[in-house]
Write a structure and sequence with these properties.
The chain is an alpha+beta fold. It is built from 11 helices and 15 strands.
Amino acid sequence: MIKLLVIFGGMSSEHEISCISAGNVLENINKTKYIITKAGVDKFGNWYIYNGDNKNIKANIWLEDKDRLKTVDNIIEVIKACDVAYPILHGKYGEDGTIQGLFELLNTKYVGCNYTTSAIGMDKEYSKILAKSVDIPIVEYQVLKKHEKLDLKLSYPLIVKPNGAGSSYGVTKVNNSYELDKAIKLAFEFDEKILIERFIPAREIECAVLGNNNYIISDLGEIVPANEFYDFEAKYESNASICKIPAQIDQKEEIREYVKRFSNVIGIKGLSRIDFFVAKDTNNVYFNEINTMPGFTDISMYPKLIENYGISYSDLIDKLIELAI
């Protein structure tokens, strides 16, 4: 049997989302194939081995289950003891190449993209630069770093977002300078660098990628958000947002060609989800972002798209581990 280390939680703003994703994976994994060690990371970076109920992970109350927790004194020993690591971590320190670099240093096999791909994918500015380099259209944007003075060259309305955060944390639509100042302050709570983008009324289209070189590229899914755009509330707190699979759009082949092109240039390994906008007025397609460790929550698009392709949730987990090995 394969000794599998499942890592969840983490120090990012997406700690809770990671726990939900990990709880779902652990509920659906084929337990006859793996000897599973569950390692939880709290918001301060402390590691624990957790032997309790997977439902407690999903509900993010695992740290309260003291009798099932064991403090990890030597993280390296825990990692080196496994055959393969599955870091179900979203955001900073988990999806940005940090932990992937540690795995590489320890010569440990792991699920997901390597440290370079992860770092570029997590940085929205760099991923846009990469997309543009292979002739994939992007929405006009500006970058602002802390302590810089903004020289705004875009017209309202705008979208302000942290450069390296996910799950729509700190994302705001603004219509004037007063709203812009507030949005900038909020975004800087999540990152040292933020993006200011031209807002376009658009359909939000997502595509799943599975594989190391010969990629499976899924059909497309469309997010119909409960709010004007797919902010945190529409994504996780509202029951009114809808995922349509397959998306009913005319630009399918164009988008899937962009997905193939971007997957090859960034070097996806294992899995990723690549997101696009389709402008409602012009039907023009724009690259939005890549997510190198997409969510596995009950409402997450990635496993739904792969299931639509014909691979079940449980088989998807097996496939990801196979690709890592």
